[in-house]
Amino acid sequence: MLAACSTVARHVYCQTFTKNERLNDHAQERASAQGAAALGIFKRGLSRTRQSIAGRIAQVLGNTEIDEDTWDDLEATLIQADLGLETTETVVEYVKETVTREGITRTDKMNNILKSSLTALIDPPPPLDIHGRELSIILVVGVNGSGKTTSIAKLAHRFKKQGRDVILAAGDTFRAAAIEQLQKWGERAGVPVIANQQGSDPGAVVYDAIQAAKSRGHDLLIIDTAGRLHNNYNLMRELEKVKNVISKAVPGAPHEVLLVLDGTTGQNALKQGQKFAETSNVTGLVVTKLDGTSRGGMIFSVFTEIGAPVQFIGLGEGIDDLVPFDVNQFVDSLFDEP
Question: How many domains does the chain fold into?
């Protein structure tokens, strides 16, 4: 393995070259087809973000001499794409350092460097820790309106297609609409939902769901929780109580805590995510509604500031439109023409 690394600000960028095992022709064709299909999904879902920044990037990276205006224009473009100031400064510094080191003098040679710097910002997400035991539990948290309940149903649908025996818990007992919404989505996905009436104890609902999962032989339980603001002390304490119920019933659980963030809120999602990460031991992020916003660049700052991996992103309203995050396809879809 050969690795070339450059340290910029708080981040370390590396290009790693490994010798891949040879695939047979059929496997190569299948992998290529799957990759092309996935890239197509990313490009369609991120069209608004691409339309917002592609033209600006093309102007910055036109065929001109690199000067101080180049860096000012690049910084402004990335900030407008909602990368955030600190992340933008990190990217610009890396690109500038690389351009200087390689003796590049024209802007049209910067495109691949910029793509590489953005790709290096985000680590590939690790596999979810939901295998190798009789019952795995995913706890899902987030504020109201983030797409949390819908994302739970889409996750259940995805895992069911992968052969998992999924059951859901309607732990958001503060809103009757949340219970009804999860039940409707569960019916659509063909997944059972354990629920109680509005105002009931969330911990009791979660406990019942765990017992039901064990007695019925389900191997994956996904738990909805009440949408809460990151600065609501009482609701955050209530979330801790739910986690205690889970850990007592299934030692070591929850095995994943996924935070759902609304991609349309841009940098505001960063503040929410930071607080949840401090109090809830978030293990992964789900960023929703990216198809309806030009702020897709927030993905980069959310990851670098919160530190939790981006596991899934929402690229549409369909039940199959919550897809595993792939940073290479994400970056490619932002640069490629529609």
Answer: 2
3-state secondary structure of 282: coil
What is the side-by-side order of every strand in the sheet holding 284-288? 193-194, 166-171, 220-225, 136-141, 256-262, 284-288, 310-314, 322-324
- Band the pLDDT of 229: cuts 50, 70, 90: low
Do residues 116 and 161 share a domain? Answer: no
129 domain residue, yes or no: no
- How far apart CA 290 and CA 333 sit, in angstroms, is 13
Residue of higher predicted confidence among 223 and 82: 223
Distance CA 290, CA 285 (A): 13
Q: Which of 36-40, 75-79, 314-318 has the lowest mean pLDDT?
A: 36-40
Specify if 337 maps to a domain.
Answer: no
Q: What digits encode the pLDDT tens for the residues 7-60?
A: 444 444 444 333 333 334 333 333 343 454 566 888 888 888 888 777 788 888
User: Which segments of 241-309 are extended strands (E)?
Assistant: 256-262, 284-288
Tell me if 245 sits within 8 A of 166, measured CB to CB: no
CA 119 to chain centre: 14
| Shared-domain flag, residues 112 and 179 | no
The residue that leads in pLDDT, 323 or 2, is: 323
250, 273: one domain: yes
User: Would you state the pLDDT for residue 48?
Assistant: 84
pLDDT tens digits, 109-153: 999 999 999 999 999 999 999 999 999 999 999 988 899 999 999
Nearest CA-CA partner of 17 in 7, 36, 4: 4
